[in-house]
Amino acid sequence: MRGWTSRETISTATSNLRALPRSCSAVPRTLGRMKLLGVALVALALLLPGARGSETSRTCIFQSLSESERGFCRGDLEVIYPEVGDVSCSYIPKCRGYRRRLSRDWGPPRVRLPWAQKNKKYVLVMVDPDAPNRAKPLHRFWRHWLVTDILGSDLRVGRIKGKVLTDYSRPRPSRYSGYHRYQFRLYRQPPHRSISLSPEEQDSLGTWDLKDFVEDFHLGHPVASTQFLTKNYKD
């Protein structure tokens, strides 16, 4: 079985060492035996299960969303965190501390739309529709990021520069609240249109009426959208 050192393996290592030229016989027998033991121990260390560090060698799989969840992902919008790449339309896995680092360490992702029109402006919205949980989303939509006046030329390379109406807030689902969807919606900004939040909206991130916001500023349907799912890293 893979991962175990057979007697044949150690026997082969021993035979190879004994087959050295006789010129090596000048080495004291004690030293020769120590070398022989060292060869056997190295072989054993390399073949034993977990000897190479299971955490570093284990493959960390980003599971794709179900068919119903994938329906939200349209327009080839990419959400890129430097350590893991594009997380669009996937679950954030717990392995390698990815959920913890997403909630505590990582800053805003690069959001990229390869086909964005260079001279047009766009509005980026990031929300959690599952606050405090998906069964009773009383605080839908929780606003995590809102940026307007993003030039298409910047959007093509994933550079989100514009007027920040809501600073990026890391995904931090509550314990035992299950998976949360973190949705990114990209709208084309109408020409010569200034977009803002009301004082009431600025005071609260939760229970945001996204539909009214879109209608008030004539944003229409998103030109692209995507989402990823994650839950509390301690769950």
SSE blueprint:
Blueprint: H1 7-18, H2 29-47, H3 54-57, H4 67-70, E1 78-81, E2 85-86, E3 90-91, H5 98-104, E4 110-112, E5 121-128, E6 142-151, H6 152-155, E7 163-166, E8 180-188, H7 199-203, H8 210-216, E9 224-230
Parallel strand pairs: 3-9
Antiparallel strand pairs: 1-2, 1-4, 5-6, 5-8, 6-7, 8-9
Helix pairs in contact: 1-2
Features of the shown structure:
235 residues; alpha+beta; six-stranded mixed beta sheet; three-stranded antiparallel beta sheet; 8 helices; 26% helix
Q: What this model shows, in words?
A:
This is Phosphatidylethanolamine binding protein 4. It comes from Taeniopygia guttata. This protein is 26% helix and 21% strand. By secondary structure, the protein is α+β, with helices and mostly antiparallel strands. It has 2 domains: 7-55, no CATH class; 60-230, PEBP-like (Phosphatidylethanolamine-binding Protein, Alpha-Beta Complex), CATH 3.90.280.10. The strands form 2 sheets. Strands 3-9-8-5-6-7 form a 6-stranded mixed β-sheet. A 3-stranded antiparallel β-sheet has the order 2-1-4, with no helix packed on it.
Just give the CATH class of the largest domain.
Alpha Beta
Got a strand count?
9
- Terminal Cα span: 34 Å
The level of helicity is 25-40%
What would the principal axes of the Cα set say about the shape?
Answer: globular
**Low-pLDDT windows of residues:** 1-57
Overall mean pLDDT score?
82
- CATH superfamily caption of the largest domain: PEBP-like
> Helix/strand-derived class?
alpha+beta
Write a compact overview of the structure shown.
The chain has 235 residues and is an alpha+beta fold.
